[in-house]
Write a structure and sequence with these properties.
Organism: Pseudoduganella danionis
CATH superfamily of the largest domain: Zn peptidases
CATH topology of the largest domain: Aminopeptidase
CATH class of the largest domain: Alpha Beta
Distance between the termini: 45 Å
Largest sheet: 6 strands, mixed
Protein name: M20/M25/M40 family metallo-hydrolase
Number of helices: 11
InterPro entries: ArgE/DapE_CS, Bact_exopeptidase_dim_dom, Peptidase_M20, Peptidase_M20_dimer, Peptidase_M20A
Shape: elongated
Strand content: 15-25%
Strand order of the largest sheet: 1-2-6-3-7-16
Structural class: alpha+beta
Pfam families: M20_dimer (PF07687), Peptidase_M20 (PF01546)
Number of strands: 18
Cofactor: Zn(2+)
Radius of gyration: 26 Å
CATH architecture of the largest domain: 3-Layer(aba) Sandwich
Length: about 425
């Protein structure tokens, strides 16, 4: 053995000794158990991914739910399937609970559905060395399996008894059923009897390529601007008699938004615009008619608004309303706002929870976990309970290409995240 090899071996032994010193004996057994059963976790993930569970494929969502329900029952949880009313048009949710008197009351959140509907041409499961491509492999069946495997490790270590854990795997995270007051009622009910919420959406990578934790996510909401003008001959446009028409007024409003409402972590995107002599907008589709020589009497703009906290939302709403109200001559306009996902603000409680998670990861020799910039993550289920509980998201698998045909999982992230999760759950439930 060369001097370099000897030095490397000594360094490796020293690192292992430091790690062992920061983990208790039972925590060391939990880590060893996760590693010993990692292949079983990958097999469970393959079974789940090989079931198409696009949000509107209700049979597929229920089938994945049944697969995971069996796992929770093996772990000693009480399980039930929460059906949705027919009017909501969603498959429902898997709920698993266990009662105890020890440690924090935890609410753990995952989802069963994917963005890939039944007719998707994307392959279900394709393993290529240390990576896997497939429908929902990272978002978020990988995260579901990480949670399940962590619980199995705790059970085998005798650390699951007397814990207070509630789990909900929703069937419609990618396209929440309306009204959300109904589709998220079960989640909110569980939150009322919990102290902390953890969600297992995919782990976001920072610019340095390391794993992160999610302490904040922006709200998702909609807005719609409706504009009226005076229909007339185009030769009179800009005159006091004819005014500017609805399309010019819509353009003024949008440019006003662009110039006056911008601030960090706030976005507002006009996704649909229609204007002319006849405008009909239904959902995400519009029908319109018009002529070059007619001043447009109608225009409609629909867009989304994403914000990090309610103070930011209120500032944006006030500025947007003021811009809409300053109408060009011969026009009038109004704006309406519709809320969907509430914000998960990066609170002190969320940051404190991340600190515990980061220390757990460091103690296991997996490095510290920084916060991912909250303004860079989209909406997720945890946002419905974040206003009620200290919360942390992004505890799931690491990969790339989510919501695309290139969705891919880094296989090694399953073991890494399962170790972190098992140790975190152990420490929170002592």
């Amino acid at each position: 053995m060369s001097l370099k090899q000897i030095a490397f071996a000594v360094l490796t032994l020293a690192c292992a000794t430091v790690q062992a010193a920061t983990l208790s004996p039972i925590e060391q057994r939990i880590v060893a158990d996760v590693k010993a059963h990692n292949e079983q976790g990958l097999q469970l993930l393959e079974r789940a991914v090989n079931i198409n569970s696009g949000t509107m494929n209700h049979a597929g969502v229920r089938a994945v739910g049944a697969l995971f329900r069996d796992q929770f029952e093996q772990l000693g949880f009480q399980t039930r399937w929460a059906e949705m009313p027919a009017s909501v048009q969603r498959a429902g949710h898997l709920i698993a609970t266990r009662e105890g008197k020890q440690g924090k009351r935890l609410l753990l959140i995952g989802h069963l559905d994917t963005v890939f509907e039944k007719d998707s041409p994307v392959a279900l499961w394709q393993r290529n060395g240390d990576r896997v491509r497939g429908q929902g492999v990272t978002d978020m069946k990988g995260g579901d399996v990480i949670l399940i495997q962590a619980l199995h490790a705790l059970k085998r270590a005798g650390a699951l008894d007397n814990t207070r854990i509630s789990i909900i795997f929703t069937g419609d995270e990618e396209n929440a059923g309306n009204p959300v007051e109904v589709s998220r009622a079960d989640m909110l009910a569980l939150a009322k009897h919990s102290d902390l919420a953890l969600a297992f959406e995919n782990t976001a990578r920072n610019k340095q390529g390391g794993d992160t934790g999610t302490v904040g996510r922006r709200a998702s909401s909609d807005w719609e601007v409706t504009v009226q003008g005076k229909q007339g001959h185009s030769s009179g446009v800009f005159s006091e008699r004819a005014g500017y028409g609805a399309i010019y007024e819509a353009a003024r409003i949008l440019d006003g938004f662009r110039q006056q409402v911008i601030e960090p972590d706030l976005t507002f995107n006009p996704g649909l615009i229609a204007g002319g002599t006849g405008v009909s907008v239904e959902g995400s589709r519009a029908q319109v008619a018009g002529k070059n020589n007619i001043i447009s009497p109608n225009a409609s703009v629909k867009g989304d608004l994403r914000y990090l906290n309610y103070e930011q939302r209120d500032r944006a709403h006030a500025k947007m309303r003021a811009i809409v109200a300053a109408s060009l001559p011969g026009t009038s306009a109004s704006i309406e706002f519709h809320e969907h996902y509430p914000p998960m603000a990066p609170t002190a409680g969320n940051l404190a929870l991340l600190k515990i998670y980061s220390q757990t990861s460091a103690d296991a020799g997996l490095g510290e976990i920084p916060a991912f910039p909250p303004g860079e993550r989209g909406a997720g289920d945890i946002q419905f309970v974040a206003p009620m509980l200290d919360s942390l998201d992004g505890l799931g698998a690491t990969g790339s290409g989510t919501h695309s045909p290139d969705e891919e999982l880094e296989i090694s992230s399953i073991e890494r995240a399962t170790i972190r999760t098992a140790l975190l759950l152990y420490r929170l439930t002592r």
